[in-house]
Amino acid sequence: MDEVFISINVKRHYLWQAVDQDGEVVDVYLQVKRDGAATKRFFRRLLNRHGDGPRKILTDKLRSYGVAHRELIPEALHSTKVYENNRAEQSHESTRMREWGMRKFKSAWQAQQFLTAHAAISNVFNVGRHLIRAETFGHLREGAFAEWKRAVA
Predict the structure, then answer these.
(1) Measured between alpha carbons, how far is residue 13 from residues 5, 16, 89, 110 in Å?
(2) CB-CB contact of 108 with 21 (8 Å)
(3) Strand, coil or helix: what is 46?
C-alpha cells in the first residue's frame, strides 16, 4: 500500500493505492486527509471489497498505517523495510503520466472515477511478460483486445 498526493483545484488530495504481489492495482481511493482515520477508511474499504485480510502488508513508514494495522488486521504481518514497497511506488507512475497528460484533474469525483477505471483496464493489459511463455502471452493479448472491443462497442 502507498499514498501519493495530487492537486485538484490547488487543493491537496491523497491517492491511496493497494497493489498485490504481482503488481496489479487492487484498489484506488482518493481522500483529503492522510491521518489514521483516513487510513482506517481505506483499510475497511479493502477488507469489505476483498473479504479476507492479507497475510502481509508492505508500506512506507507513515505512522497512520500502523494505527490501522493494529486496529483492523492485527494478525497480518506489517513490514516497513526500505525498498519493499517499490511495486506500490511504481504503480503511481502511470497515474502521474495520465494526470500530466490530462492537465490535472478538475474535481475529486472525476479523479476517483477515472483512476478506478484506469486501474482496472491497466490490470487487463499489463501482464507480467517475464512470468509466462510467449504462446500464453499471445493468447492473453488476444483475450484482452477482445474484451476491450466488447467494452467499447
Answers:
(1) 6, 10, 17, 13
(2) no
(3) helix
Q: Which three cell numbers stand for residue 70?
A: 493494529
Q: What pLDDT, on the 0 to 100 scale, is given for residue 104?
A: 72
DSSP for 42-57, please give it. Answer: HHHHHHHHH-SPPSEE
The three cell numbers of residue 24 are: 496489479
- Res 21 pLDDT > 80: no
Report whether pLDDT(128) > 80: no
Pairing type for strands 11-19 and 25-31 reads antiparallel
How far apart are alpha carbons 87 and 20 in whole angstroms? 8
Domains of the chain from N-terminus onward: 2-126 (3.30.420.10)
Return the SS3 of 74.
Answer: coil
Instruction: Count other Cβ atoms within 10 Å, centred on residue 104.
Output: 12
Indicate if the pLDDT at residue 94 is higher than 70: no
- Cell (9 digits) for 88: 506500490
